[in-house]
Design goal:
D-Maltodextrin-Binding Protein, domain 2; 2 domains; nine-stranded mixed beta sheet; three-stranded antiparallel beta sheet; elongated
């Protein structure tokens, strides 16, 4: 792994420790220090480290504190982005990675015996900052694709106006914003646009680091949020929890049933329920579910823990991952993560059992 990435993970952990906000007794009599994104227990029986997706980081943060109460295990996690997380676990600089994008064939080979375990279920919101526009504009995938291809350039374009009859839209220029780093959120977004727009698929395609013909790039969810928050006319893609906590307006997206749906626990769960083929260690795309899933939000995604089949901390790693896909799921809804479907949990348990 590049020295810069290793340093970034170390600095992330140090920053978390420096922002400790208090402590409480855990259920095993140890002392737990709760911090922004991590929790540590004195006298623990195990320590595991992870790095990756910023999308799932708020949920992992909740898991860390809750898991420490009963397990005597310290888990630390660096939200460095999906691409960096994959690089970290591939180099075995961490015990597990996390990514919103499945591994490519080359990444599978490089990771040398890594499992892809869907452990969270979320949605990518289409957030915007447009003075004079309503809180939840209606948008469609083909229109969104044309915006990111540079073909639709103003908020009062007829293609947007036709989806929002009776709404007065400003002539403000659209400023698309995208992730400049390797991002699983970019993967989910481009996977969706490639599914609904043949033109987008041929010109950009599904990727963690797309090359858009227009727009402004920013690193990480925080970087994207910073640009959107200070730019009238900005449009971006970001996990729904981040949009809500950033107080961004976000769109109701048209699904295959021609229903305009907001991303929430129910609509994200409906997208996952439409997935019929779920097997251990087999990533599955749930974007643009069929019209039969009328309540589904069309830009939904599983996010994955990337774990090695061979680990010196196998028992502890299995314990944490089993917790995440079972008990830990109850912590997801307040953060707009939908509970995993039972068949996904069953497949996850079979995959986790392979870690030795």
């Amino acid at each position: 792994m590049p020295r810069q990435l290793s340093l970034l993970i170390v600095l992330t952990a140090a920053a978390l420790a420096a922002t400790a906000c208090g402590s409480s007794k855990n259920g095993s009599g140890g002392q737990t220090s709760s911090v922004a994104g991590a929790s540590t227990t004195q006298g623990t029986s195990g320590i595991i480290t992870g790095a990756g997706s910023t999308f799932v980081a708020p949920l992992v943060s909740q898991w860390i504190g809750d898991f420490a109460k009963s397990s005597k295990v310290t888990v630390t996690y660096g939200p460095v982005g999906s691409g960096a997380g994959i690089a970290a676990i591939t180099a075995r600089q961490v015990d597990f990675g996390a990514s919103d994008a499945p591994l490519s064939p080359d990444q599978v080979t490089a990771c040398k015996g890594c499992l892809e375990i869907p452990w969270a279920l979320g949605g990518t919101s289409i957030a915007y900052n447009v003075k004079g526009a309503p809180q939840h504009l209606k948008l469609s995938g083909p229109v969104l694709a044309r915006i990111y291809l540079g073909e639709i350039k103003s908020w009062n374009d007829p293609a947007i106006a036709s989806l929002n009859p009776g709404t007065s839209l400003p002539a403000t220029k659209i400023q698309p914003v995208f992730r400049s780093d390797s991002s699983g959120t970019s993967y989910n977004f481009t996977d969706y646009l490639s599914a609904v727009s043949p033109d987008f698929k041929s010109k950009v395609g599904t990727t963690t680091q797309p090359t858009f013909p227009t727009g402004v790039g920013a690193k990480g969810s925080s970087g994207v949020a910073g640009v959107v928050g200070h730019t009238n006319g900005a449009l971006t893609y970001v996990d729904v929890a981040y949009a809500i906590t950033s107080h961004f307006a976000y769109a109701a997206m048209e699904n295959a049933a021609q229903k305009f749906v907001l991303p929430d626990v129910a609509s994200i769960g409906a997208a996952a329920a439409a997935a019929t083929s779920v097997k251990p260690n087999r990533p599955v795309s749930i974007v643009n579910p069929p019209a039969s899933a009328a309540a589904a939000y069309p830009i939904s995604t599983f996010t994955y823990a990337i774990a090695p089949t061979q680990s010196s901390k196998a028992a502890t790693l299995r314990q944490f991952l089993r917790y995440a896909v079972t008990t830990g799921q109850t912590l997801g809804p307040p953060l707009q993560f939908a509970p995993l479907p039972p068949r996904v949990i069953a497949a996850d348990k079979r995959a986790i059992a392979l870690i030795r």
